[in-house]
GNAT family N-acetyltransferase (Thioclava arctica), 101 residues
Amino acid sequence: MLLCVVHDDADTAVGYLWCHPDKESQSVFISDFCILPPYRGRGYGRSALVALEAMFAQTEFKELRLRVAADNYGAERLYRSMGYRPTGINMRRPIANSERP
């Protein structure tokens, strides 16, 4: 489900939110969420997440889930301030001495 985040006054798109409701897990996974750079820090991200939660509040879905990049401090700060909590950690390691074509 692709949702457009719009500016209150001008009906201008300021971002988008792409989510996947999963009935089996009773969760809604936010797979991509972006507020365009000129509109960041103005409350659009928070408002979009509040609206998404309201959209699913009276349904069988129990939680919202997402992943955030470790270096995306602004997004992590937003999510934590809204009650999102870490549930795991992704790790990686480059392959040493591997030949690249």
The first helix runs from residue 44 to 56. The beta strands are 2-6, 13-22, 27-35, 63-66. The chain has one domain: 2-81.
